[in-house]
Structure formats: C-alpha cells, structure tokens
Amino acid sequence: MARLFYHKPQFAILDECTSAVSMDVEDSMYSYCREANITLFTVSHRRSLWKHHE
Fold it and tell me: Which of UniProt's keywords are assigned here (predicted)?
C-alpha cells in the first residue's frame, strides 16, 4: 500500500491487502485512494470493503 500511496497510479489490483489491518485503517486507506482518484480492483473476503466499490 505504501507504493500505491507514493506512486498514485490510475488503477491498482489489491489481493487481500487489508487482511492484517483493522477496519478503521482499512476505511482510511480506501478513502484516500478514492480522494486520489485511484481505481481499485480488490480481492478480499471482507464484506466491509463492499462499501468502497460501486
């Protein structure tokens, strides 16, 4: 995720990237990506991520 925040690509494919962080941190990370206009393709088992995707 640090590379994602530094390079700010147009899109990113994330595979279980938030499995080791709390839901508060997860929300902050995904909110930042939205503000930075980074399109995300996410692979995860957490339903809490659904709200960050259309």
Answer: Membrane, Transmembrane, Transmembrane helix, Transport
